[in-house]
Design brief:
Immunoglobulin-like, metal-binding, seven-stranded mixed beta sheet, disordered N terminus, hydrolase, endonuclease activity, Extracellular Endonuclease, Chain A
Length: about 525
């Protein structure tokens, strides 16, 4: 610990002496030999946790090195920690002529980058997030050049990984000024080793005041950039307003695992000294939900981290997902065959999941996927995630293998039409209705009670041209004749909202959800 403290002191002294305004890029850089860079984040269009573009004058450290492994010995002379400036479009240029790289002769090289820039002589960075007032400066990113030959004519492509977590709250029922929100007992310091990508958190926990601002709707928002770590059970979010009111949310009791690169957004209502949270999302397909002790919301990326996979609201008592929301496009579909990789979901305790390695063992009941296996066929790993037990429900066999399957085939057909980029899908399993609050159960192979859905639904939204279109489907969990047409089970998304009590596609105009365009859905 003493050694880390000495590193910290040295870094602070070094940074302090180097805080000067850098000269603008000189016109004398020879474009035919100097190296320029483009950037992207793990295959996604979003470039920053703190926003969707680089901020003006964002600066990064870039290193050029030989061999496949980045070490202090593999870095080329005069290629150590060069300062580059980002444009809003993601292109990176040297801060001045002295910071530029020249393509080496007769060498195969690679590049490593880190945001933000620090003028330090070490490969270990000290990261401190106690002061949250400059969110961009806390958006730590690790970048590397893509594999493959590097052309002297084109910018080198750097692919960045997000190290941090964005945690954001919006206060829906207040316009209070002079508001202060504090996250209690969170880690605020860490070291990051550029060579082995090792983030080592200090054991000391501190209270961190969030950054308060107004969004484009003039709602009060508070943001934190946090290290990826499950919040301690003792963690609290405490809000103080100018009128002397204090509101406390025992957020640690949610057992929320903060995963690098993810945003966690909540809309809060302050009432009677309590905080009433509601999960928000930046993804169109995810419904708006309310927090519940028995219902747990999970968002997951694909196993390689290249794109989002699916989200679900999982019922830990009744052992099924109330809904699974996911995007569908050609990026998710390939030649991978059905893996049948039945397994427990690693994001949930096993004792909250059904045991379905060999089915329910009940004639006429299938392990019905909510996210279909056929919607994730890009590779083995992505398809295997559809066989998590949390994605399964007790579905009538004739429905699963008949009418429901034909609807899923049709959704893929709609998705792969030339004018469509992405289909947004919510699949739901309803175990209680307004008229029937009883829950039907079946037993799994472990003698656990599993809720049997009364009906299933699909909510779909798609953008064609500049317009969005939506449609819903509802089918009882029962046998349907083979000649039954799934289009006879359609309804508007607005009607599906009324039926389920959920808000689908919160970002869509309500008029879109009230209509069904027969030219689009045919």
């Amino acid at each position: 610990m003493k050694r880390v403290g000495l590193i910290y002191l040295f870094l602070i002294l070094t940074i302090t002496q180097s805080c000067r305004k850098e000269a603008n890029l000189s016109d004398v850089i020879e474009q035919d030999s100097s190296v320029l860079f483009s950037s992207k984040i793990s295959g996604e269009s979003i470039t920053r946790v703190s926003g969707n573009v680089w901020d003006t004058e964002d600066s990064l450290s870039i290193y050029m090195y030989e061999t496949d492994k980045f070490t202090s010995g593999s870095i080329l002379p005069q290629a150590f920690n060069k300062k580059f400036i980002a444009s809003r479009g993601g292109n990176l240029r040297p801060a001045d002529v002295n910071e530029s790289f020249q393509f080496p002769k007769d060498k195969e090289v690679r590049y490593l980058a880190f945001h933000p820039f620090q003028r330090v002589p070490l490969l270990t960075r000290l990261l401190d997030i106690e002061n949250q007032q400059n969110q961009s400066a806390l958006d730590f990113l690790h970048g590397q050049s893509e594999a493959g030959p590097i052309s002297k004519q084109d910018p080198v492509s750097l692919v960045f990984e997000r190290l941090m977590v964005k945690f954001q709250i919006t206060l829906s029922n207040t316009s209070r000024s002079n508001l202060k929100a504090t996250l209690k007992q969170v880690p605020t310091r860490a070291t990051y080793d550029l060579a082995n990508k090792d983030l080592d958190l200090y054991d000391v926990l501190k209270d961190v005041e969030g950054f308060v601002s107004k969004n484009n709707k003039q709602e009060t928002t508070v943001e934190w950039m946090l290290f990826p770590r499950q919040l301690p059970r003792s963690s609290q979010l405490v809000i103080h307003d100018a009128n002397g009111g204090t509101y406390t949310w025992n957020i640690g009791e949610m057992n929320l695992p903060l995963m690098a690169g993810n945003r966690y957004q909540y809309e809060l209502t302050l009432r009677g000294g309590e905080v009433l949270p509601e999960v928000k999302t930046s993804y169109l397909e995810v419904p708006r939900i309310e927090a519940n002790a028995n219902l747990e919301y999970k968002f997951r990326m694909t196993p390689d981290g290249s794109k989002r996979n699916f989200s679900m609201l999982y019922d830990k008592v009744n052992r099924l997902a109330h809904w699974v929301a996911y995007p569908l496009s050609r990026d998710y579909v390939g030649s991978q065959r059905r893996t049948n990789a039945w397994s427990y979901d690693p994001l949930f305790p096993q004792n909250t999941q059904p045991f379905l390695s060999s089915g329910f063992g009940i004639t006429g009941i299938d392990r019905g996927h909510q996210l279909p296996s056929a919607d994730r066929t890009k590779n083995f790993a992505e398809n295997a995630t559809t066989f998590y037990y949390t994605n399964m429900t007790a579905q009538e066999s004739f429905l699963n293998q008949g009418l429901w399957m034909r609807l899923e085939d049709k959704i893929r057909n709609w998705t792969f039409q030339s004018a469509v980029d992405t289909m947004y899908v919510v699949t739901g399993a309803v175990i209680q209705t307004k008229d029937d609050q009883t829950i039907d159960y079946v037993m799994d192979r472990g003698r656990n009670r599993i809720a049997r859905p009364k009906y299933y639904y699909k909510a779909l939204a798609v953008k064609r041209g500049s317009n969005y279109y939506a449609i819903g489907f509802k089918m009882d969990n029962k046998y349907f004749p083979t000649d039954n047409n799934f289009m006879s089970h359609r309804l508007s998304v607005a009607d599906l909202e009324e039926l389920t009590g959920l808000t689908f596609f919160p970002g869509l105009d309500p008029s879109v959800k009230r209509t069904i365009d027969n030219q689009i859905w045919r």
